[in-house]
Structure formats: C-alpha cells, structure tokens
Amino acid sequence: MIPTWYRLLARLSHDESVGGQRLAEELGLSRAAVWKQVEKLRKTGLAIEADRGRGYRLARPVSLLDQEALGGEAAAHGLELEIHPELDSTNRFLSDLLADRRHARVVIAEYQTGGRGRRGRQWWSPPAAGLCFSLGWRFECGMMRLGALSLVVGLAAASALRDACGLDISLKWPNDLIHGGRKLGGCLVEIGGHADGPCDAVIGIGINAHLPETFDPGQPWTDLWRATGDGRRDRLAMALFSALPPMLRQLEAHGFEGISPEWAKRDALAGQSLRVTMPDGSTRAGVAVGVSPRGGLYLEAGGVTEELVMGEVSIRGA
Ligand code: BTN
C-alpha cells in the first residue's frame, strides 16, 4: 500500500505551492488529515513551508524515483529493481528474503525508518533526501576471498559518483565516501555463508542527496546538492547499476590485487597520522600506509607495520 505521506510528497514535488483545500480534494483527505500528514513529513526532517495565501511548498526541491524508468535500466544490467516508499532498512529487507531470491536484486527505499550504519549506528535521511540502495549478490568463491568486498563496493560507488555527478571522491578506509574532506555517503556490507563455498552478501550504499542544514552526524558532511548544485538521485542509481556488477565479478574472479591500485588513487588516509579504535575499545596509533590484499588497513608505527582488519579511524590530533 502506498503511504499517504508519499502521495502528499509526490503531489508537492510537482508544483511550487499547493493550497490545503486543493491537496485535500486531490488526495481524498480532510484538511485536518492533510495537516497531520504535513506534520508527519516535517517530523522526518523534511522542511515544508506554509503560506496563508499560497499553501504548502517544499523548502528543497524533491524528485521521487520512478520504478518504471529505473527498473528498465536495472534490467539492462541484469538486475531486478524494486523501489519502496518506506522500509525500516533496505539491507534488512534483503536479508530477510530467502538467500536464493536475493541475487542481483536491488532494493531502494525513499525513506528508511531504521536505516543501519556501520558499527551499530543509525543511518538517517528524510524522505527522498538521500539514496538508500541495497544490492543482494551471491558469490561462489567463499568468504575467505571477499575480505576486500566493502572496499570494492566503495570504489564502485566512487566511480558511479564520477560518472553520474562528475564528482572526485576519495575513500576513507574501509568505505566512507568523501568529497572535499566531508562525508557524502557510506557503505554497509553484510555477508553470510561458507568460508570456501557459496556466500550471500547484502551490499548497502547510502548517499546524501539534499539534507537539511540541521543535520548533525558528529562529523563534517556534504550532499549531492551542496557538491554539485543538483540533488537528483536517478542518474546516480543508474550509474550504480552499471558500476557494481562488473566490479563484484572482477573481485570474485581475480581477487583484490588487480583492483587495489584504484584504491591507492582514492585513499583518503594514505600518509596520515591516525588513531584507530578497535572493536574492543583499545586504540592503535600510526601512519596509514595503504591496504592489504584482504582489505585490511596497514598502519605503521616505530618501523613496524600492522594490518588492521576492523576499526574506527580518526585523524590523530583531530
Ligand atoms: C555508514 O555507516 O557509513 C554506512 C551507511 C550505510 C547506509 C545504507 S542506506 C541503504 C542501506 N540500508 C541500510 O539500512 N543501510 C545501508
């Protein structure tokens, strides 16, 4: 069922401003119900202005994603696409499907009520203000060969952002998408299966498209609107359809070695003095000197190089 807030947002996205009475008639709602839905959208963080004479208008332009147009593009790349107005999390939605129904399936949500970020964090964006994208992928090569998967996903997202938006993206290990020193998006890869046999990955990518000024994730951030003057997401989704499958196939067939020079070109941490917080809360300090064949971060301190496979990076002194 299509949620009422989605129908309201779709209507508002077409016109400069629309009166409350007109919205009520077109959506088959009472004026009070229109007001309630406006409030609901506002609570998600979407700014809607109200003018006594002219009615309601979106403070930032919104362009909803079109299942028909994008579904055709996805199919051209062997992918099956479904766009949902609202899900708790696109990663969770795909994970809940039977493994054999996930492969090559892309799920996009206009709004996630429980978007998941790395390390148990929340991933937040108001309706249509970000691209919330997940792809299910089956690998036959076993998990042992997929240590660098989330780095490869970051590289595919960076190349899609270049092709669709002309952006020069660097990557902060393991897979933050950085533009102009600010976080534009991130990836969350969840994988299950056999060390040497088939395994299934859910590859989640979140990219900020046009967020409110008030957004405060505790680190410098940017979005497509600020970086390019255009917050549309459709071309970016299409570019992801074309960038991801070949990179995933290349990783499975040939490993990370052939891809790692690409990482080196985009490595935002290379040569930086870092402090890395390990999952157990302990910290390591050193200078980042690249990534390993299995996607770990090489950290050098006192002439010794250590490979870290998990952890949270902050720039030392920052
Ligand atoms: C990060 O913490 O940087 C990773 C964020 C990943 C967010 C995306 S949005 C689509 C997919 N569904 C989720 O619940 N999370 C990922």
Provide tags for this entry:
7-stranded mixed β-sheet; alpha+beta; 318 residues; binds biotin
What does this structure look like?
The chain is an alpha+beta fold. The chain has nine helices and 14 strands. The strands form three sheets. Strands 3-4-5-9-8-7-6 form a seven-stranded mixed sheet, with helices on both faces. Strands 13-12-11-10-14 form a five-stranded antiparallel sheet. The protein has a two-stranded antiparallel sheet with strand order 1-2. Helix 1 crosses helix 3, helix 2 packs across helix 3 and helix 6 runs antiparallel to helix 8. The longest helix is centred in the last third of the chain and has 21 residues. The radius of gyration is 21 Å and the shape is globular. The N and C termini lie far apart (47 Å). The model has no long low-confidence stretch (mean pLDDT 94). The structure holds biotin.
Give the SSE map.
Layout: H1 4-12, H2 20-27, H3 31-43, E1 48-51, E2 55-58, H4 67-76, E3 80-87, H5 90-96, E4 105-112, E5 130-139, H6 149-165, E6 170-172, E7 176-179, E8 182-193, E9 199-208, H7 224-228, H8 234-254, H9 260-266, E10 273-277, E11 283-291, E12 297-301, E13 304-308, E14 312-315
Helix pairs in contact: 1-3, 2-3, 6-8
Bound molecules: biotin.
Residues 89-91, 112, 115-118, 121, 123, 132-134, 176, 186-188, 204-206 line the site of biotin.
